Amino acid sequence: MKRLAILGASGHGKVIADAALLSGWDDVVFYDDVWPGRRENGSWSIVGDTKTLIENIGEVDGVIVAIGDNNIRQQKSFQLKKALLPLVSVIHPKAIVSKHTKIGAGCFIAASAVVNVDVVIGDFSIINTAAIIEHDCFIGNACHISPAASLAGGVILGQRTWVGINATVRQLVKLGEDVLVGAASVVIKDVQPGTTVVGNPARILERKKKC
Question: Domain 94-201 belongs to what architecture?
Answer without folding.
Answer: 3 Solenoid (2.160)
